[in-house]
Design brief:
Layout: H1 2-56, E1 60-65, E2 73-91, E3 97-101, E4 109-110, E5 115-121, H2 126-131, E6 133-135, E7 140-145, E8 152-153, E9 166-181, E10 193-198, E11 206-209, E12 212-213, E13 223-231, H3 235-247, E14 278-288, E15 294-295, E16 300-302, E17 305-312, E18 315-326, E19 330-339, E20 342-347, E21 354-355, E22 366-372
Parallel strand pairs: 1-22
Antiparallel strand pairs: 1-21, 2-9, 2-14, 3-5, 3-8, 4-7, 5-6, 7-9, 9-13, 10-11, 10-14, 12-13, 15-19, 16-17, 17-18, 18-19, 18-22, 19-20
Length: 373
């Protein structure tokens, strides 16, 4: 019996051997297939990373400039300007009564101390009669007249909101006022150059300097008020005015300071600035002859820190800077370079190439295709 089983086992052994070999081969083939698939996957992932890397290195198109120097380069600030009369006075009734004298009308000139209005008071005491006379506090022009002879007027000292009877202004001199932002207020002085352009007048600007400066910023808008007193007549009239003003030691002038005869006008002409009109005043806070300046648009800020992108061998390099002056058009900046843990200021060179567009798309080391402006 045993021999018979051994013979059967030997008879089927080749088949069992073949099956075992086949199974082993199948296992080997399956492992090879899996390895091949893994290799294919790795290659595909590698190819994908290569494609992404290639996309990342596509240069970004930007515009660039080189820092410029020159005698015509200046940094300034421009703001709206208001033209006002040198003096303005509203004459109110000091007593209640009837207007009995008012000869001058709008546009008529008056001299200092001239009797302009007489009011017959309701109570005819000598004191009230004296208060009923209104005289011009300075030489000027009547800008407005609110009543006629025969009109009853209330006393402005008793009735709140009473209207002025006449308004007198001085327009041979005008005061031009501007509010300077606090960012450049510390750079403004009485020697600061000024260019005034009127909205209603084309041509070259009127040039002058600042007459007076407020000692403090306004708490409401943190601006600094500056004023310029401009003579509103011709050069010949100005010479006559100066000669007459010297006789009184300029007692009729604010701070006994003469107004300016503006430059930039045609020879022999007058400014003829109209009080109440508006213009644009530009303060030239500093002129630069040898210091490199760049467009303000080149400056980028990250976390409040200013930077520039500098093009080096087709690559944008971000570098920290310090902004000394920036008027919104031109800026004077310096590189801030770290040496032994200390910040060192370095001037920009005129051969350096600075990016002025598309900075928001750039990272440090980004390839760029720069077009020099």
């Amino acid at each position: 019996m045993k021999n018979h089983l051994e013979q059967q086992w030997l008879a089927h052994a080749p088949a069992r051997l073949i099956g075992t070999v086949a199974l082993s081969v199948g296992v080997v083939l399956s492992s090879a297939e899996r390895a091949g698939a893994q290799q294919v996957g790795v290659k595909a992932a590698t190819d994908s990373r290569v494609a992404v890397s290639a996309a990342d290195t596509v240069p970004i198109r930007v515009k660039s400039v080189r820092p410029k120097t020159g005698p015509d380069l200046a940094v300034g600030v421009e703001q709206p300007a208001n033209i006002a009369p040198y003096y303005r006075a509203d004459l109110f009734a000091k007593v209640a009564g009837t207007v009995t004298f008012l000869e001058k009308d709008m546009g008529h000139t008056v001299t200092k101390g001239e009797k302009v209005v007489v009011i017959e008071p309701v109570q005819g005491t000598p004191a009230d009669v004296a208060l009923g006379e209104l005289r011009a506090p300075f030489s000027g022009v009547i800008a407005a007249r609110a009543v006629d002879v025969g009109t009853f007027v209330p006393s402005a000292m008793i009735v709140p909101g009473a209207m002025p009877i006449v308004t007198i202004v001085r327009t041979d001199i005008v005061t031009v006022a501007m509010r300077v932002p606090d960012t450049v207020a510390q750079l403004v002085g009485k020697d600061t150059e000024v260019e005034l352009r009127m909205d209603s007048v084309s041509g070259a600007p009127i040039r002058c300097t600042i007459t007076r400066i407020s000692p403090a910023l306004s708490p409401s808008d943190r601006t600094l008020r500056v004023e310029i007193d401009i003579y509103n007549g011709t050069p010949a009239e100005f010479r006559a005015f100066v000669a007459q003003s010297e006789q009184s030691q300029h007692a009729d002038l604010k701070g006994r300071e003469l107004p300016q005869l503006p430059k930039g006008l045609a020879e022999g002409s007058a400014a003829h600035l109209i009080p109440g009109s508006y213009g644009r005043m530009q303060l030239i806070v500093k002129r630069f002859a040898e210091t490199p300046l760049i467009p303000s648009a080149a400056i980028v800020r990250q976390g409040g820190v200013p930077y520039l992108y500098r093009v080096e061998a087709g690559v944008a390099r971000r570098a920290r800077i310090a902004v000394d002056i920036d008027d919104g058009t031109l800026a004077r900046v310096v590189w801030m370079e770290s040496v032994d843990g200390k910040d060192i200021r370095r001037e920009l060179r005129t051969d350096e190439e600075i990016v002025v567009s598309n900075q928001g798309e750039l990272d440090d080391g980004q390839r760029v295709s720069a077009t020099l402006q």
